[in-house]
UniProtKB/TrEMBL annotation:
This is Epimerase. Transmembrane segments: none annotated. It holds the Pfam family Epimerase. Residues 3-219 form the NAD-dependent epimerase/dehydratase domain. It comes from the Bacteria. It comes from Spongiactinospora gelatinilytica. InterPro entries: Epimerase_deHydtase, Lipid_A_modif_metabolic_enz, NAD(P)-bd_dom_sf. PANTHER family: BIFUNCTIONAL POLYMYXIN RESISTANCE PROTEIN ARNA.
């Protein structure tokens, strides 16, 4: 069964596609830059060049495809207009084209940022999204709503996987986190998920029977505090004056933390790296 992967040249996709190819799955990728797609072509992926916002490219890319894993998204260094055009509008068009092409699986990457703060407990999939008012998060919520509507009205075989903060396998994301986490109180936490576990979750979502229209949180078992993030990035926090602020607490200590019981129960997900420290010890950062 050929799997079409969008966003294959991105941080998640460039690590997920080789995993698929190692399992001898036929993979087609939709990429807008042949140079960025070249390493995937060398590994055996079929490359279709095109932009997600080009409807003509979508129909061609979907020909003969049984499953779609939609990772393409605009949120790094793009304006609001582009974020909405790619994350909402193009996602809906891709789903409509996938319905016409008769795919049997449509796995779409979401983000746990859609939950927002204020629940006083880890966020669950049934919670109403209350995202921060950024084009990225609001366009992801709008896309999810449209995908679920297409499931109800036209039978789109969608499975949404909401990813926590993804790290590992050379991704600079953990180091980048300090650009904003540095202002956090010492004990505010970030929920992580390793690329190997994102790969596991996406594969489980593709293969599972009878879970169309469902949404799953994907995260590890041990969110890290701001203090730990600093230490993981090699910063000393033990000298006087070098540690983060301790005189304030987060308004909601559960902000950004998600419950993963559903993906464990329904898809059999068990993190390969339950904590960032197991990934560190395995040399998988
Ligand atoms: N990384 C995380 O921590 C994280 C957390 C939660 C959710 N997610 C979700 O996971 C998915 C993948 O994220 P990522 O971190 O891998 O993002 P990324 O590194 O920014 O990659 C985005 C991918 O989308 C492609 N893309 C963007 N605009 C496009 C367009 N107009 N046409 C075709 N392709 C386009 C990019 O192509 P180019 O290579 O040509 O730019 C790239 O392959 C996204 O849906 C994101 O929302 C990620």
């Amino acid at each position: 069964m050929t799997i079409l992967v969008t966003g294959a040249t991105g941080r998640v996709g460039s690590r997920f596609v080789p995993r698929l190819l190692r399992r001898a799955e036929p993979v087609r990728v939709l990429a807008r830059d042949p140079v960025r797609a070249e390493p995937l072509a060398r590994l055996g992926a079929e490359v279709v060049i095109g932009d997600l916002r080009d409807g003509g490219a979508l129909a061609g890319a979907l020909k003969g495809v049984a499953a779609v894993v939609h990772l393409g998204a605009a949120f790094r260094e793009v304006g609001d207009e582009e974020a909405v055009a790619v994350n909402r509008t193009a996602t809906i068009e891709l789903a409509e084209a996938a319905l016409r092409a008769g795919v049997s699986r449509f796995v779409s990457a979401g983000t746990t940022l859609v939950y927002g703060p204020g629940r006083g407990r880890p966020a669950r999939e049934a919670d109403e999204p209350a995202p921060p008012a950024w084009a990225y998060t609001t366009s992801k919520v709008a896309a999810e709503e449209a995908l679920l509507r297409l499931h109800r009205t036209e039978g789109l075989p969608v499975r949404i996987v909401r990813l926590a903060f993804v790290y590992g396998e050379g991704d600079p994301h953990l180091a980048e986190s300090l650009a904003w986490a540095r202002d956090w109180p010492a004990h505010k936490r970030l929920h992580l998920v390793h690329h190997a576990d994102v790969g596991q979750a996406l594969l489980r979502a593709v293969r599972a029977e009878g879970v169309d229209g469902r949404t799953y949180n994907v995260a590890d078992d041990a969110p890290v505090t701001h203090l730990e993030l600093r230490e993981l990035n090699g910063e000393s926090v033990t000298e006087p004056g070098t540690g983060p602020a301790v005189d304030q607490g987060p308004a909601d200590p559960w902000e950004g933390i998600v419950d993963t019981a559903k993906i464990r129960r329904e898809l059999g997900f068990r993190p390969i790296y339950p904590t960032v420290y197991t990934a560190y010890e395995a040399g998988a950062l």
